[in-house]
Write a structure and sequence with these properties.
By secondary structure, the chain is an alpha+beta fold. Helices cover 62% and strands 9% of the residues. It has 14 helices and seven strands. It has a five-stranded mixed β-sheet, sandwiched between helices. The chain has a two-stranded antiparallel ribbon with strand order 4-5.
Amino acid sequence: MSLARLMLILPLLLCLILFATGVPRMAGWVADSGTLLVVVLGAGGALLLVLAQVFNQGRIGHMALLVLASFALQHYGLPAPGVAYSGPAYWLLFWLALLLPLNIVLIRWLPEYRPWSVGALSWPVLLLVQLVLVWAVPRSPLFVDAYSWVQSWQLQAGGGGLPLPAWMSATLAAGILLTRLPRQPDTVLAMLGVLLLQALAFYFAASAGAPLLAALLSLLLLLVALLIHNHQLAFVDELTGIPGRRALLNDLRHRHGRYTLVMADIDHFKSFNDTHGHDVGDDVLRLVASQLRLVGGGGKAFRYGGEEFTLVFGSDDLKEVTAEVDRLRESIAVYPLVVRNKAGRPADNRSGKQQRGRQPKDKVLHVTMSFGVALRQPGEESEMLMKRADKALYKAKQNGRNRVERAR
């Protein structure tokens, strides 16, 4: 499980636990500070919308808007806790519980825009249309037939529970969100968390403060997702999935005492791009990163830039670190990189049978790396340490490449 995924799953579970433990206490909190909590919710939602605009996170902004709209409709459109739902109130709760999960799925698959850009306005307009229809239908002659259908899904006794169509909508939405989860699932997992919290809010709609608590926790979860996403953008290399140069500099800034730094460079990387294309060059970078990620001895891998990588070890045992680096060098050198023959692939099974045995085989390439190892001296700045490691790397290349050299 990736760190980004774990960083969001834990807050998601925490929010669900807080909701379960907080609902019984919300009646007292609402009685004492209900207005203040609503103000906090509105301010938090506005702040999240601004941050989403600044950081180009349209989905986060749309989700915040959906949470605020859902709470406002529940807060001002539903009766006080303990009052049975009927007529327009039941109609509103039914369609809220049915449509909200479907809107979350729609936000998930819409293109990423800034929340208030022209391209992003399609969803708020659609949301407004839904609100107008939900408000207008009970006031039209069609209300009698439509309400009869809604009434057939009457809530359980006492107003608790969700109608079957709402259960089906929430289940379908959760399944769609989890299907083909992206490599960086921060926003999608936050959407799933909001879906679960809002479903619980509808289920406990008769409990005082349940919609307010669900809305507050939903905005908190969306804020966490926004922070995680921007942390990934700032500190994780998108191509290789390992920490990037900014993360390296931040790591070195907080290291003190003696440690070992290794500069590494892919041998003849330009020839891979020139001969096989940039796609193969990207595959080479991913392959190297996947092997460097397995570094032992307490080491940590970073992509410094281009075809250069950096390893940082907390150990000052130069002999032990050099042995681990040499093991990595050898594992990379023997690892086969298969270059698929895409141009010669048959269009269908029949063509494949005719061409079988006559197509050129896929190429198998091998990548090598050179390494320069430097042990930090007392009081030495990280910039000077990196220069010494870089000189050792240059020496490794001069001495034939695919080797490890120590700095003086």
